[in-house]
């Protein structure tokens, strides 16, 4: 039997190689005759496979003859294409036809795509029948046949081989980053879990495919960080691909949970279409017009949303695959049919909310995000010269690994194997204890201790202890690509309302609502734990619900909408209760930004510190010029401003400097670089930062 399978595999490989060669021909076809030849050969392949299919659907001498006749008829018809192309070519050479197009026409690309898809589908169907993995009388008609064929190894493996070979053959016509994306895409297609009905393959494909997809996301993020100008063709291709990956991961989740493979199969076919359309019309990738993506918030949003949706379903898939005991049957538990409309609506909200919150708070989602976003932070680490910022970045990565992944998941399940799910002890970190468990008497004490520790640390070193180290958010905000999206803080009409250190009315309302909701939820949770008032929200303790709402749902919604709300919007808009509480301690603490020499800031025209600030504190240069220091409770101590000051004039001061001053220890030599100042014709203006948000220089003490 294995010899038979081997023969089929060799045949499939030959067909994949032939198709790839024909696609290369199609991509480089510049004459009508050549284009017609490609179509003729593709149609010949379709004819051969269709004939074979007819035989395998009803094996026997009669169907063999039918198959032969069908193939012959289709092949004869395909000769017409060659004939018509030949005539057109002759007319062209005699000057009677319009000049040949400079690239493949839309009609030609469409025809090639259709024939390649048809060929692949018929081949997948025929080979599955020949191998005995598909019954000739597959149930469900076309809706049943389509996913069965597309998710078969004969379709998926052949297609991925074809894609990889096509990428290789056309590598000289495509820019290097496009080749990388297409090659990774081909291998990810090969690692399709439904391709083989074997446990070892399913596991291998889920782990390796997910890892490779994460690798692709990291590559893309780093690429857009380093290349702020993208051609229209490449940027469009990327958002299309990511949208398809979102659908594909959703399809894989449905396949693993319910055995439904239709969405996965549909996304595979759509991915094939965009892949082959891209390689056939590759010209615009290198020659098309390019534009800065930072001026295209909708594009950046589509990119982030595509990646996020893929990751959510990938996280759920990994949870089910790695930890089926805890996760099987926990998603979408309430019925949507057979219940009144109102109940169905509630159930849909319940299911959707807990799917999202449960997944984003789960071990493997957080581990996966840690790898992806941690890689971007590692890239940032490499290009960060300041030792202090490097130490903070290293601490931030360590805290993420410890407080988001190791302690809540690995440590507790190892140390307390019999503890019920979610029964974790509150700890210092993102949740600050609130939301991991109902506020029962024993838990309240631990939460208060947690806040006391946070308060002391924030007073001594600033809110950066939480917002730039302990919290999981900064790891996601501060990687290279996401950090570069801080330009949206100044360009988005909505985000601009939150610029500068002042508290706008909108900010005050937001923080008031957030702290109010925390107070109400905490009181309700305490009363519920004491048995005084039985209250739950969406089936959960109020504080557990509140934590899930803010950090499992809202945080990610706000993350993918950075192009509209700006980077670090939990800080700029004040919608995080943890950050708001930490900022209250910063108000009375030692943390502030100081400059060595005020005059340098007065002469400075770059205002780089303000431009680099990820929370949009664009008014800092004005304060430096006036008082030599800047204290804002919104500042979360990232230190980007310190790193970019071209004159090395800025530093972060906290309790260590206060102690040094009190002890009268000698000051370190000033590191200020007295470089020639950059002068601009409008040197008295506001500079390039934030329009009217940066106060004009003339409002500060006279220069020199
Ligand atoms: S404001 Fe909240 S979510 Fe944002 S970084 Fe600080 S603690 Fe994290
Ligand atoms: S970039 Fe440096 S010199 Fe210029 S205003 Fe900022 S801290 Fe002062």
Please give the alpha-carbon distance between the first and last residues.
Answer: 91 Å
Radius of gyration: 31 Å
Rounded average pLDDT: 87
Strand line-up across the major sheet: 4-3-5
Strand content: under 5%
The biggest beta sheet is recorded as: 3 strands, antiparallel
Q: Which secondary-structure class do the elements indicate?
A: mainly alpha
Helicity level:
55-70%
Explain briefly what this protein structure is.
This protein is an all-alpha fold and 704 residues long. It has 32 helices and 5 strands.
Folded structure, characterized:
This protein is mainly alpha-helical. Among the domains are: 422-584, no CATH class; 592-699, no CATH class. Helices cover 67% and strands 2% of the residues. It is built from 32 helices and five strands. The strands form two sheets. Strands 4-3-5 form a three-stranded antiparallel beta sheet. A two-stranded antiparallel ribbon has the order 1-2. α2 (32-57) runs antiparallel to α3 (61-93) and α9 packs parallel to α12. The model is unreliable at 422-429 and 681-704 (pLDDT under 50). It binds iron/sulfur cluster (SF4) (2 copies). One iron/sulfur cluster (SF4) is lined by residues 595, 600-601, 604, 606-609, 621, 624, 645, 647, 649-650.
Characteristic terms for this protein:
32 helices, binds iron/sulfur cluster, mainly alpha, 704 residues, three-stranded antiparallel β-sheet
């Amino acid at each position: 039997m294995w010899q038979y399978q081997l023969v089929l595999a060799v045949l499939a490989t030959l067909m994949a190689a032939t198709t790839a060669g024909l696609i290369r021909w199609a991509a480089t076809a510049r004459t009508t005759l050549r284009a017609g030849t490609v179509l003729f050969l593709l149609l010949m392949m379709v004819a051969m496979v269709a004939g074979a299919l007819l035989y395998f659907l009803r094996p026997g001498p009669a169907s063999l003859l039918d198959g032969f006749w069908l193939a012959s008829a289709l092949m004869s018809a395909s000769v017409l294409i060659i004939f018509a192309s030949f005539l057109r070519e002759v007319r062209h050479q005699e000057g009677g036809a319009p000049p040949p197009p400079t690239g493949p026409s839309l009609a030609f690309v469409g025809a090639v795509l259709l024939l390649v898809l048809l060929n692949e589908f018929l081949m997948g169907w025929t080979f599955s029948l020949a191998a005995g993995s598909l019954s000739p009388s597959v149930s469900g008609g076309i809706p049943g046949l389509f996913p069965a064929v597309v998710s078969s190894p004969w379709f998926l493996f052949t297609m991925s081989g074809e894609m990889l070979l096509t990428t290789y053959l056309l590598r000289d016509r495509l820019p290097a980053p496009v080749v990388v994306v297409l090659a990774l895409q081909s291998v990810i297609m090969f690692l399709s879990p439904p391709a083989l009905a074997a446990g070892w393959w399913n596991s291998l494909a889920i782990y390796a495919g997910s890892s490779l997809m994460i690798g692709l996301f990291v590559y893309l993020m780093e690429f857009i960080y380093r290349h702020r100008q993208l051609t229209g063709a490449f940027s469009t291709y990327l958002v299309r691909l990511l949208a398809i990956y979102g659908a594909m991961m959703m399809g894989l989740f449905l396949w693993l949970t319910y055995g439904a493979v239709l969405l996965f199969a549909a996304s595979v076919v759509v991915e094939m279409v965009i892949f082959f359309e891209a390689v056939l019309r590759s010209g615009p990738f290198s020659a098309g017009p390019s534009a800065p993506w930072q001026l295209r918030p909708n594009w950046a949003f589509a990119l982030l949303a595509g990646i996020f949706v893929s990751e959510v379903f990938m996280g759920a898939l990994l949870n089910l695959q790695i930890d089926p005991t805890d996760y099987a049957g926990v998603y979408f538990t309430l019925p949507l049919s057979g219940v009144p409309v109102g109940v169905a609506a509630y159930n849909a909200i319940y299911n959707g909310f807990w799917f999202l919150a449960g997944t984003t708070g789960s071990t493997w989602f957080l581990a996966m995000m840690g790898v992806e976003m941690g890689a971007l932070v590692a890239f940032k680490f490499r290009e960060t010269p300041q030792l202090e910022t490097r130490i903070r970045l290293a601490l931030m990565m360590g805290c993420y690994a410890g407080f988001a992944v190791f302690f809540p998941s690995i440590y507790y399940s190892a140390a307390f194997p019999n503890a019920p799910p979610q029964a974790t002890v509150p700890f210092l970190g993102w949740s600050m204890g609130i939301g991991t468990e109902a506020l029962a008497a024993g838990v309240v004490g631990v939460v208060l201790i947690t806040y006391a520790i946070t308060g002391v640390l924030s007073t001594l070193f600033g809110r950066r202890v939480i917002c730039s180290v302990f919290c999981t958010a900064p790891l996601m905000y501060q990687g290279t690509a996401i950090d570069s999206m801080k330009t949206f803080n100044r360009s988005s009409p909505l985000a601009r309302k939150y610029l500068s250190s002042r508290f706008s009315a909108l900010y005050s309302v937001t923080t008031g609502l957030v702290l109010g909701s925390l107070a109400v939820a905490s009181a309700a949770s305490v009363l519920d734990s004491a048995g005084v008032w039985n209250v739950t929200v969406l089936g959960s303790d109020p504080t557990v619900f509140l934590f899930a709402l803010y950090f499992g749902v809202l945080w990610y919604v706000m993350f993918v909408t950075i192009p509209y709300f700006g980077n670090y919007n939990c800080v700029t808009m004040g919608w995080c209760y943890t950050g708001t509480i930490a900022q209250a301690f910063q108000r009375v603490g030692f943390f502030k930004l100081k400059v060595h020499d005020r005059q340098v800031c007065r002469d400075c025209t770059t205002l780089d510190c303000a431009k680099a600030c990820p929370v949009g504190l664009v008014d800092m240069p004005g304060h430096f010029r006036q008082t030599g220091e800047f204290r804002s409770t919104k500042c979360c101590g990232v230190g980007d401003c310190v790193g970019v000051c071209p004159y090395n004039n800025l530093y972060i001061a906290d309790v260590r400097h206060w102690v040094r001053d009190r002890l009268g220890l000698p000051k370190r030599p000033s590191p200020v670089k007295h470089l020639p100042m950059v002068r601009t014709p409008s040197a008295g203006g506001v500079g390039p930062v934030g329009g009217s948000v940066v106060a004009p220089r003339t409002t500060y003490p006279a220069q020199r």
